[in-house]
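Subgroup meeting minutes
Present: P.N., E.W., G.H.
Scribe: E.W.

1. P.N. recapped why we're keeping a running log of single-chain structure predictions: easier to compare across weeks, and new members can see raw inputs and outputs side by side.
2. G.H. added today's entry (472 aa).
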Amino acid sequence: MSTSTERPIANAPAWLMEAAKRPQGASKASKVRSITTATSAGIEGPPILEGSRDDTLASIAGRLHDGTRSLDDLAAQLLEINAQRCEPPLPDQQVLKVARSIHRREPCTPGRPKEVDELVGVLSDYWHGQTWKKLAKKSEARFARALIREGHKFGKRVPMGLRVEKSFRQMAEILGVHRNTVTNLVRRAKQTGWLRQDNAGRRGEQSGAFVLVDPRQFCDTDNQAGAVGEGVTSLSRLPEKPLNVADLTTSHHRHRGLVGYSKEHTLCVFEAYGPQDRVSAAKLLGWARPRDLERLHLEPLCELGLLEKQGDIYAVAGDYRERQEGVLGEEYSTVQPRVRRERSVEGRNLYVVGESGIVASEAERLRLAEEQHARERDGYRNRAASYADPHYVNVGADGYIGDLERVGELSETDIRTLEAIEAFEGRYGRGSFRWDRASCKELFYSSSEGIWPEPEELRRIRDYLAATAGAA
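Output recorded in log:
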């Protein structure tokens, strides 16, 4: 009797038979076809449909931001891609917002020529070789560091040095200062010799360019510390090789903020040179008394969490970037009393105490500055369609000279001020009164009545003098 339990083999499923018959290379081909191809970064490409326009344009901007394009060039290319491929196109303001957001980040590839990296290294050594004493030099140090960093991203090598295509307004946003401050910084840097301007070929709304002069082409002795020994120059007197200036992550802090200009420079030195005691740090920063540096800078920075102290050694915190973001997001007040003079109904001068300034964080102040600069740019671009504003003394006028009210006679107070100015110029010479705050101060101490005119009063007197001179 057979006890075998063998059964016939069942037929394989149909899907398994199809897979066995399929060629071996077919599965690889299907995998290759399943991979999503990279988005085309040119004008010619597939249409970008609604729902994916923001993400696709951000991806394209990231590929275009390779370290060779300025913000204006990147925005112009994105606007053209948006007009040709997006269905429907996004608003221009949204595209510019994407361009600014991507341009703030590091370039996607180190697409910089070797000669640019080599020159950035020389400029970094020059920056570390300077002493940058006093607050004015600290401002120059911030300006130079920002230009070196921007030049490392998308600068171009020219015979004189490193060309950085940036406008005054863009540098003001980066540094968190007014445009007039950038103008003064450029003037002082040109006098020192390490900066030039290059506006050749500039048209319309295009940004100008700054040129960081190659330190090997000029000699700066105005801001150098005394060197001892033969062959010691500004590029060879460094105690050790510090971190490249372009690689420093210390943020630019605003004046009168929680950190300020001077402490910002101290943070840069600690980030570049590593842990230091107060004596070594004072020598690098040019402080005569290390205890003053510790009391005024090191201890406050430790309280903010940006520096850490272990024994006698100070160093930047391990999570330095995160702590910087926390400081930038912390609110502080710049509100301060301000005295202004007003005229009463009876014609008397009244001194009114008001307040000026806001309570906001540095990040919020940067956002407000960017919005203000955006409005100024839009106003400049649309200036042909903008009408003249009515004059504040003649509500309803269209702003043209024919609709303005004529300047009337001066009040008794203005007449006394004008007589004091004429007496001042009679004593010190014609043209000695320069109509500024310094001249008002001199007038106050020289006049027997102690007259100190306000800016509005000076404007009225000058308008009166201009009107009477024209009538004569």
